[in-house]
């Protein structure tokens, strides 16, 4: 897959990972884990609005929001003691933020496999990130 097919934020994240050696990619993933945006108060106060991503080994919950300008905002929560999962959630939350619904739906399903972490983390963890992306797209398709 070429970076030209990706929205700019996701392409930049992909490039940042691929420019690093394997061992340093995990450090970048940990940086993303630390940068997972906090849930807005309206979701913190109503955890029932969040959907569990059961494919993830750790308890990950997401909510997909679309504002009046058709911009997508992915909100996610994952435990601090699950930095890999938090990192994946953060990559998607940051990389998809502000994209249009059509742009998010056009993100290749295999994006999680293209950021250079398949050697560094287990396939099960990569599948968790793929499930987060798939659920995000499903939520967007189900919108009224």
UniProtKB/TrEMBL annotation:
Q: Which residues form the Fe-S metabolism associated domain?
A: 15-138
Spans through the membrane = none
- Could you list the residue ranges forming a coiled coil in this record? none
Q: Write down the InterPro entries for this protein, in alphabetical order.
A: Fe-S_metab-assoc_dom (IPR003808)
Family membership noted in the UniProt record: Belongs to the SufE family.
Protein name, please?
SufE family protein
């Amino acid at each position: 897959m070429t970076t030209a097919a990706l929205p700019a934020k996701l392409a930049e994240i992909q490039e940042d990972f691929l420019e690093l050696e394997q061992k340093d990619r995990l450090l970048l993933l940990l940086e993303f884990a630390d940068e997972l945006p906090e849930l807005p108060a309206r979701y913190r106060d109503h955890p029932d609005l969040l959907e569990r991503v059961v494919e993830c080994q750790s308890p990950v919950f997401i909510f997909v929001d679309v504002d009046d300008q058709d911009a997508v905002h992915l909100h996610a929560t994952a435990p601090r003691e699950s930095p890999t999962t938090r990192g994946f959630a953060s990559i998607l939350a940051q990389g998809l933020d502000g994209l249009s619904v059509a742009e998010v739906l056009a993100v290749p399903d295999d994006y999680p496999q293209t950021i250079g972490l398949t050697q560094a983390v287990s396939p099960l963890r990569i599948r968790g990130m793929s499930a987060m992306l798939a659920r995000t797209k499903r939520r967007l398709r189900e919108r009224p």
